[in-house]
Design goal:
By secondary structure, this protein is α/β, with parallel strands linked by helices. The chain contains 7 helices and 9 strands, in the order αββββααββαβαβαβα. α1 crosses α3 and α4 packs across α7. The structure holds hypoxanthine (HPA).
Length: 271
């Protein structure tokens, strides 16, 4: 784990990433944002020894180093997922690499299914909290004390003070931003209608297959976290239609400009 992180830090530092303040993880269909950063430089995950590479369509599998609002940003254009067969501890690599580069705040994004029936395809949801229903945890295994404690507190994973400020900012800019609980399933199957009824009963507003491991790893090493879900579809059983990755990608494409506006607001005015 540490060797892979050190190798990644070395390659990223060679592209000027040292001193990045903000880390950005871009979810399904949302990766193009990274290419719009000022002065982008690229490091492929495949060029970092030991780094897992995502094979999901719509994920590019590289770091992008760039600037926005005068701040240095390190973005992950594409991430790997638990359902690809990697242990969750490896899903912490990107976040821990960012930590070593100096990142103080992680902005983590995803495409998600809407469980809250007041949502619709295209709703942007600020993550207030999560339910880790994935069946695993990125901190399983030997604790790396240099990153954080064995039994980390989880009472403010998605930094409340930033959420409060972002809601005020986005309202003043006319960007509609829901706020709710994200529940992680392992995937790769989409959920059944019964699982979605369970998720709603348990307090979830959205469901997805990512984000939670990265947010846990970030909170463990005392990063601030902002989580954004783009609701690309209503979850199974809510509308009378099947779910597909094509629908997810299509909605992400249609919402890309609004999504970019929100991320710009976060990078330029909130952080
Ligand atoms: N379920 C799980 N993950 C998802 C969904 C969904 O409905 N939509 C996009 N990612």
């Amino acid at each position: 784990m540490l060797e892979i992180i050190n190798a990644a830090v070395e390659r990223l530092a060679a592209q000027g990433a040292m001193g990045a303040q903000v880390g950005l993880i871009l979810g399904s269909g949302l990766g193009d944002y990274a290419e719009g950063l000022d002065n982008p430089k690229f490091v492929n995950y495949a060029d970092i020894p030991g780094y897992p590479v995502s094979e999901v369509v719509g994920h590019k599998s590289r770091f992008v180093i760039g600037e926005r609002g005068g701040k240095k940003i390190i973005a992950m254009q594409g991430r790997f997922h638990f359902y690809e067969g990697v242990p969750q501890s490896l899903l912490a690599l990107g976040v821990r690499t960012m930590k070593q580069l100096g990142v103080k705040t992680l902005v983590v994004t995803n495409a998600a299914g809407g469980v809250n029936t007041s949502y619709h395809a295209g709703t942007l949801m600020l993550i207030s909290d999560h339910i880790n229903y994935s069946g695993s945890n990125p901190l399983i295994g030997k604790n790396l004390d240099e990153f954080g404690p064995r039994f980390p507190d989880q009472s403010d994973v998605y930094t409340r003070a930033l959420r409060t400020k972002l809601q005020v900012l986005s309202a003043s800019e006319g960007i509609e931003l829901a706020e709710g609980v994200y529940m992680m399933f392992s995937g790769p199957t989409y959920e059944t209608p019964a699982e979605i009824r369970m998720a709603r009963t348990l307090g979830a507003d959205a469901v997805g297959m990512s984000t939670v491991p990265e947010a846990i790893a970030a909170a463990h090493c005392k990063m601030q976290v902002i989580g954004i879900s783009l609701i690309t579809n209503m979850a199974a059983g809510i509308l009378n239609q099947p779910l597909s990755h094509e629908e997810v990608a299509e909605t992400a494409g249609i919402a890309a400009t609004r999504f970019a506006g929100l991320i710009d607001l976060i990078l330029e005015k909130l952080l």
